[in-house]
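In full, the data:

***
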Amino acid sequence: MNNEGTMKSFMKGAVLLTLASLMVKLLSAVYRVPFQNMVGDQGFYIYQQVYPFIGIFSIWTSYGFAVAVSKVMADHEAHHYSAILRTAFSCIAAISMLFFALLFFGSDILANWMGDEKLGGLLKVSAFAILLMPPLAILKGYFQSHNRMEPVAYAQVWDQAVRVSIILLGTWLLLSNGASLYTAGQMAIFGTVAGGIAGLLLLLWHFRKSSAALPKAVPLQKGPILKKLMAISLSVSMSALILLLFQLVDSFTVFRLLTESGVERMAAMEQKGVYDRGQPLVQFGLLIATSLALAIVPLIAHMFKKKSGRSANLYAQLAFRTSFLFAFAAAVGLTCVMPYVNEALFQTREESFTLIIFSWQIVWMSLLLVMNAMLQGLGKAKMPALLLTGGILVKIACNWLLIPVWGVTGAAVAGNIALGFIVAGLFLYFKKVWPLRFAPVRYYGWLFVAGSAMSGIVILWALLSDWVLFDGLPSRWAALFTTFTAVPLGAIIFLLIIAKSRIITEKEWYIIPFGRKLAGLQLAINSRRKR
C-alpha cells in the first residue's frame, strides 16, 4: 500500500513537471512573436545571436545536471546525500565560473568572431545568468531526488513568466524612449537573468519550508561521483540541446558568411533575423512530439524493468508512430500556409520558402527526441552522443558550403541535412540494439493520403480566402484570417482520414495524453461505416 502511494505521488509529480515543461516551451515559442514585432528583423537577429550562449548552459545545468544529481542521490543511501550535493555544487560552480569568465572577459573576442562587435555588451549581460545555474541545478536535483516535483514545476513556470514579462515590457519601454536595438537586446537578455533569480528565490523558499533535514555527511570518493554526474547530465540533455547548438553554429557562421559573400551588413542582419523566425515555429511544432515522448517513454522503461518485452515493443511503436504522425502533419500544414503564417505573425512574407525548409526540422527533431529517449531508457547513451556530435560537425560543414551559394536558405537546408544524418544513424543503431519494426507500410501510405488531402484543401481554401473573401482587408489582417481558418480546417481533414484508417487503434489513443477524444471520434466514424 505504501509503495502504491509512493508511485501515485511520483506519477502526480511527473505529470505536473511535464505540464510545467510544456508551458515553459509554449511561452518560449510564443513570446518571440510580439518581441520580433517590436524590434523588427534586425532586433530579432541581435537577440538570437546571443541567446544560445545562455540557453545551452541553462538546459545542461538546470535540466540535465539536475536530473543527474537526482539519479545519483537515488542510487545512494541518505547519509551520502550531503557529500553528493557538495561535490555536485563544487563541480558545477567551478564550470560556471569558467564559463562566466569566458563570456564576460571574452565578450569582445566572441562578438568579433560573430562579425558584429556591438554584440559584446549583450554577451557581458548574459554572463551573469550563468552564475545562477549552480544553485538552480542543485536545488532542482535535490527536490527531484525526494520526488517533490511541485517546487521544480512552479519555479520553472515562474522563472519563464518573469523572464517573458521583463523582455516584452522592458523592450517596449526602452524603444518608446528612443533606445537602440542593441540596448533593447541587453534588456531582453537581462530578462533571462531576472527570471533565473525569480526561480531561484522560489526554490529557496520551498527549501527553507522543507522539514526534512539532511543526515550528517559521510565522505564519498569524488572521482566516481563527478564522472557519473557529467555522463548522465550530458546524455540526458544532449537531444534537448541540439537545436540550440545549431543556433550557436548559425550565430558564428550565417551573418559572417553572408557579409563575406557580398551582402550588405544591414541586409545580412535582417536576413538572419528573418531566418530566425523559424525557431519559434519549430518549437511550437515540437510541443506535441515532446509531450508524447515525455509521457510514453517512461512506460517503456517501466515495462523493461518488469521484463515485459511485448508491452515495451507496443509502447515503443506507439511513441514512434504518434510522434511522426503529428510532426508530419505540422510540417505539411506549415508548408501549405507558411506565407500567411509568416505575414500574420511576423509582418511580412519574406523568405517564406526558407522557413518552409526550416519547418521540416520538426519531423527530424521529433524522431530524434523519441528514439534518443528510448535508447536512454535502454542505457545506451554513448552512440547517440557521438551521432549528435557528428550532426553538429555536419551542420558546420554544410553552412560553410551552402550559405555562400544559397544564403539563409542554405542554412535551413544545412539544418535538415545534419538532423537527417543524426536520425539515420539513430535509426540504424536502434535496429541493431532493438530489432523492432516501428510501423507497417500501410501506416506510411495512409499518412501520405492524409497529408495530400490536407494540402489540397488547405491550399485551395488559402487561395480562395486570400484572393476573394478577404481581398478588401489590409494584407496582414487577411493573412491572419487565412491562417486561423486554414489551420483548423487542415487539422480536421487530416484527423478524419487518420481516424478512418485506424493506423492508430482506439486502445492506443487512450494511452496518449488527451487521446480520449480522438479515440471517441475514431469509434464514431468507424461505427457509422459498419452500418
The two ends are 47 Å apart (CA to CA). Residues 1-7 have pLDDT under 50 and may be disordered.
